Amino acid sequence: MTEQATPAPSPTHPVPAPRDPHLRAMANCIRFLSMDAVQQANSGHPGAPMGLADVATVLFKDFMQFDASDPHWLDRDRFVLSNGHASMLLYSLLYLTGYQDMTLDEIKRFRQVGSKTAGHPEYSHAEGIELTTGPLGQGIAESVGMALAERIMNAHFGDDLVNHHTYVFLGDGCLMEGISQEAISLAGHLKLGRLIAFWDNNSISIDGATSLAVSDNEIERFHASGWHVLEIDGHDTDAIRQAIETARATQDRPTLIACKTIIGFGFPTRAGTQKAHSDAPGEAEIAGARNILDWHSPPFEIPDDLLKAWREVGAKGRDARLAWADRVKAAPQALRSDFERRTAGKLPENWKNAIVAARQAFIADGKEMATRKASGDVLNHLFDAIPELLGGSADLTPSNNTKTKQQVEIKPGQYAGSYVHYGVREHGMAAAMNGIALHGGLIPYGGTFLCFSDYCRPAIRLSAMMRVRTIYVMTHDSIGLGEDGPTHQPVEHLAALRAIPQLAVYRPGDAIETAECWELILEQPRRAALLALSRQPLPLLRNEADGENRSARGAYILHEAEGGPRQVTLLATGSELQLAVQAREILQSEGVPTAVVSMPCRLLFEEQDKAYKRAVLGHSPARVAVEAAVELGWDRYIGPEGRFIGMHSFGESGKIQDVYDKFGITTDAVVRAAREILKDIAV
Amino acid sequence: MTEQATPAPSPTHPVPAPRDPHLRAMANCIRFLSMDAVQQANSGHPGAPMGLADVATVLFKDFMQFDASDPHWLDRDRFVLSNGHASMLLYSLLYLTGYQDMTLDEIKRFRQVGSKTAGHPEYSHAEGIELTTGPLGQGIAESVGMALAERIMNAHFGDDLVNHHTYVFLGDGCLMEGISQEAISLAGHLKLGRLIAFWDNNSISIDGATSLAVSDNEIERFHASGWHVLEIDGHDTDAIRQAIETARATQDRPTLIACKTIIGFGFPTRAGTQKAHSDAPGEAEIAGARNILDWHSPPFEIPDDLLKAWREVGAKGRDARLAWADRVKAAPQALRSDFERRTAGKLPENWKNAIVAARQAFIADGKEMATRKASGDVLNHLFDAIPELLGGSADLTPSNNTKTKQQVEIKPGQYAGSYVHYGVREHGMAAAMNGIALHGGLIPYGGTFLCFSDYCRPAIRLSAMMRVRTIYVMTHDSIGLGEDGPTHQPVEHLAALRAIPQLAVYRPGDAIETAECWELILEQPRRAALLALSRQPLPLLRNEADGENRSARGAYILHEAEGGPRQVTLLATGSELQLAVQAREILQSEGVPTAVVSMPCRLLFEEQDKAYKRAVLGHSPARVAVEAAVELGWDRYIGPEGRFIGMHSFGESGKIQDVYDKFGITTDAVVRAAREILKDIAV
């Protein structure tokens, strides 16, 4: 018997002959870099990059307006990979098109600590990563914000300065997430014709065939939300090109291009199956793909001619960019300087005068005022000073006080304005605001009830992680919401939000602190911020004319103890600050030297040095914290002898004062707690 | 000149003549109770109850299978008010149909502290409130779970015992929330023909006309998800009746009945406008409604004949209920006792043998094992013992280890099974599980990555608030997730979840604790629970044969200090428990008596008495806590001299050990921290 070679297994999904061998070869560069990187990392998701490689090749080669040598060019097209697990698709494109910091070494260090090539694309890790994606559905929702920002900027600055597309790739998982519906619905309503989405319609998810869990007609679904929908074979490069052309010609509606693809295109046995989705393919599968796709380079090596072709793609936008730069230079001086200032993320000079004016008005008025109302007043003052502020609310405009008198509403097809009715789409709003902030030129803020921060939480997390200045205006911030009851009364939300790294949670205690918090938010361009604001009116507790921002260090001594060394420290935030002030008066009248510490922002306080923290918290162990929320996190400041006056359960429906009384969050309770500690430590 | 009466303003929406004056009068009972209650409370939402009154009257009078004298009848139809702000609609129905605890006094105490009539319907506040609603979209998603539970119970127990409908009212806001898409998509996929939804299509939300923010074709959208859709005039009682009949006859698909309604139907000037949505209408508006609707009773008074008619509606299901009870009695003994046990929420005798068996297997095996794997093994042992366990995952079945070998998958139209592929719909899954748990007869558990608890958070909050035994199996619970990186690595989630009142968050440290946590979860029928489980293998740290559940008190001394009074206490949870155990060995070897405290459940520990807590935490101030998560909440246990080894930022993509090293979460770091405290306090 003669020895026989084992025949290669017949491919489960035979590879169709390419329309254009050169394009297929260019796409194969993406496929093999993706396979090789996942194999080397022994971890990752090869299937989607391989399935989407043809679409990406046509899009980047023939349409994407960008210049790899200037990743920050404002008028570049935006590319969003909503199915972020396909990160090797993006990293391959960045390397191939010649982004300087995406080296082959970085590709080889895929998914290793310290690399630019994390498991999912991380904003700011490398140039060309427009945003962080991975949690499914976030990318499509953020891209709606980007596309909206483009239109708003276009309406203000004209076609010469802002005129580009937003392209987004998304997978089956993105479409199953509820946030995708909010995004699709909002984009369709607003007629965002510059948004073009590509659905990687490969019918595979982690549990197996998508038919295990979903039977939706996605074409009909997008159509129901006013989208233009096209269906193509995602491996037919002619069809891809034609679809993109049709989509670009359709300017009154966003377009979905449903691309029928084979996950793991090129794998001999895994193509079209769940096994191609995640995990390293193994040497045999890669060897098979080499045969099938006629690829002869060693791992991580791209043939010179193909690399050259790709580098040309990365450089082809250079002329357009230079022409744009000339147009910027030729623009009227005022427009140009406004454009350059805004897109550089700089605030106008003298914007702080608006804050000063708001403070002065509050002091002149002197009356009780809800901090949500104070926030609305601050925004009214800011409107003229900072034209890039873009407001909105998730259908709670009159409650959130987010709309200033002057703001013009954005409407379908009419983008010359600065207020967005986001609808009852908290999550979609939050993600869209991230996209708006990332686009550049606009500062988004949006409102809902604090309780519904839960609905936006995955997007809030990304705001914090990406360090973008997305501003959450969240009112009705405690049981002080009253009659709507426990489902609408935030109790655990302050703690839960303070737990998010890098997120600045502000809870001002009166109108003056509200102005201070807005000032702090606006002067920190790389920090996501959330304002927790009261429904109920609060007394004005400050009246300094000097305008010093006392909230800037996160916590400060509002009233120092008098008549001797401090015996008691009362800590409070927001609507409970008044209780601490009243309790101090009682304790002082009893001869107990008592200080009140206001702590509008825990994060900023934690950044102070030890000496400042000690001075604020005082040396007496008699500390009482009062906040109409759960205790979690307060132990740090009150210490083992301290007491906490706040919530230990969900809230209850009722009149505001009745609810506070019911849960024992009162001046008396604060006074009593202080007395008890003094007694305990005297023993 | 003679005095002339001011003419009444012409109504903005003239009231159409009723098809059936008696039905209109019955509906007006709901309208006036709602108006009167909102007016008295000076707070609430009158518009939706007034708009939906005709639909509710026909549904309850002619279709709803229920008996007001036995609210817990298992085979009753379920009624879900997803637009929970329309709570007065439900309270009116409960009072009118004669639920004993819904008195007129309660209606008069609408939205007051201590009443059964909270601003939004609160489960367990009054009989007949099937679930807590208010956060928009939750009700429709929970009703999908209820309808699925009905089919699964029907498949197991047959038409004689379980055979009912789930009816859900929803508003425009529910449809704008992303969770509604997850719910609609899942219900359509599973062909839940017993689910009938009524859309209150009134085109008004808080910001104004819904056209400000939404342009979706909802009919097409539901159709795209496989629903049967009907469109009717929501004030035409004949059309309503006919639509419900058609919907009930359609058993292979869920039905949406789009009801065109006038918000605030009957108000003279506010009908059909945003002003009818929220807030007290004022006396003038109510007086106008009295004229228009021909209503002559004083506030809160229902004419005897109408009350009698309504009480008959509440009693009409009595015979059906008694017949059902007879069928239960006549059922085969084994089926009957199983049915009665399960629907009473009692576990089978001897179920704990499965836990014992799982523990024994872990000890016999003795190897390293991820707690997610241990959880899967426990479930395999539990499968035969507790047939009412209903598993599932949001498309992470192989990662979450949620599917046992024996479980049969639920498929469209095929409900004889015990595993649900929920798809990439974490939020919809969580809410559906609430509905399943509330339905009775099933114990739902479902998996995703811990990081994506953020996507389910509004539903998790409701699990906790309603005290239902919904079980969240959340794996990949820290930076130990590794290469997928910061977007997938939970950091703040443990703190954020522990902040939710009444939610038991379990983070077991090895396979034995995993079995203990499952035991604790299952034996507490009124507590929502979340398991945080490791991706990475963990050593077995326990090997007692006695089977005592040491996790039952939330925290316990895993190893007491030896060789003298305790000098150091190391606290840990989950995958970091092994670091504490290793650190203790080093410290003991250096002659430092060191204890290790394992704290798998903070909530249970907080419920212990002071003496136990003190004994566990020890008297030495040298305490070190180690957890691969943010510090928030740990100060409480480590005190001012204590140290925390954990996360102070988001995570990073990389190999597990590299990531732990990068963030300094190591045995050495724990040892060093202990030594430093001992040095500090010795000074």
Automatic annotation (TrEMBL), chains A, B:
| Annotated site (Important for catalytic activity) | H45, H277
One Pfam annotation reads Transketolase_C_1
Q: Which residues cross the membrane?
A: none
Q: Which residues does the Swiss-Prot or TrEMBL record annotate as the active site?
A: E426 (proton donor)
SMART domains recorded: Transket_pyr
A GO BP annotation:
pentose-phosphate shunt, non-oxidative branch
Identify the residues that bind Mg(2+). D172, N202, I204
Stretches with biased composition (Pro residues): 8-18
Span list, region Disordered = 1-20
Listed cofactors: Mg(2+); Ca(2+); Mn(2+); Co(2+)
- Report keywords, A-Z: Calcium, Magnesium, Metal-binding, Thiamine pyrophosphate, Transferase
Top-level class of the enzyme under EC nomenclature: transferase
Recorded E.C. number(s)?
2.2.1.1
Positions that bind thiamine diphosphate: H85, G134, P135, L136, G173, N202, H277, F452
Per the entry, the cofactor note is: Binds 1 Mg(2+) ion per subunit. Can also utilize other divalent metal cations, such as Ca(2+), Mn(2+) and Co(2+). Binds 1 thiamine pyrophosphate per subunit. During the reaction, the substrate forms a covalent intermediate with the cofactor.
Q: Summarize where substrate binds, as residue positions.
A: H45, H277, R372, S399, H476, D484, H488, R535
A molecular function annotated in GO for this UniProt entry is: transketolase activity
* CDD domains from the UniProt entry: TPP_PYR_DXS_TK_like, TPP_TK
Domain of life here?
A: Bacteria
Record GO cellular component, one term:
cytosol
Q: Which PANTHER family match?
A: TRANSKETOLASE, TRANSKETOLASE 1-RELATED
Which family does the record assign? Belongs to the transketolase family.
Q: What is its biological role?
A: Catalyzes the transfer of a two-carbon ketol group from a ketose donor to an aldose acceptor, via a covalent intermediate with the cofactor thiamine pyrophosphate.
Summary of subunit composition and partner proteins: Homodimer.
Protein name as catalogued = Transketolase
Identify the species of origin: Paraburkholderia eburnea
